Fold:
Amino acid sequence: MIDLHTHSTCSDGSETPTHVIELAHSTGCGAVALTDHDGLSGIDAARERADELGIQFVPGCEVSCKYSPGTQHVLCYYVEPGEGPLQDQLERLRSDRTTRNDRLIARLNELGIPITEELLVEEAGAATIGRPHFAAVLVRLGAVQSYQDAFDSLLAKGGPAYFPKAFIDAPITIEAAKGSGALAVLAHPLSMGLEPTELERQVAELAEAGLAGMECWYGRYSAEERQGLVDIAKRHGLVATGGSDFHGSYKPDLSVGTGRGDLYVPDSALDDLATRRP
Ligand code: AMP
Ligand code: ZN
Ligand code: FE
Ligand code: FE
Structure:
């Protein structure tokens, strides 16, 4: 059993990278990937703990790609902190977030809400500051009734304090991953919200662009959905991979390795992926 999709406090999970590895080890995973959103800051600590415990570690990240109306996420595996085209793209996303956060603070101040960067840093800890942290601080300041109210009345798309964030096109992500010696895998493909024929066409396009694999055994998918995705992956020469999408207490239904209890990602998924490494 392995888990190729987990998040830590370095993006939007509740557990530290070290603890994610410990959870994977205690559950009996032979290998685990840390795939925080848009960043690699947890990789070093995670690897160190994995080495101590003797569990195989795969450094990764998850990139949100430009897509609508659904969401399209690409997991990148075997990517190391440091220099490279994929790392450059991640840096671009981070600096865009900083600009966006500054504008968001300014707008909320204009609206008479005394939110500050300090309060957000305090709220986010090691994580990248995003709208969930704004929402939490807005609640603390008494500016909104609830976390959800913060989105509904201010932060959601179309709201008075909404600013879009930067996304990278999937083909660019795939190409950048390649340039960094990494492999790109389409995450939770059903989140694109496509009908079967459209899904098939989209997967074919991404495979053509150099996608290495597709996440089929996903924590929140049914047995039928998982099998359907395995069949699609096979048809397009993609490695079938899988993972829980563990976020700790933020997605309390999902455990490392076992998802909702019925997840089982075979070790062969990682063996197959490894054969695709450039
Ligand atoms: P960001 O990456 O800063 O745009 O924040 C995205 C996160 O905000 C999502 O992962 C959700 O957790 C949260 N979020 C976005 N839209 C809503 C919404 N309408 N209601 C509640 N939470 C939302
Ligand atoms: Zn997440
Ligand atoms: Fe995702
Ligand atoms: Fe994820």
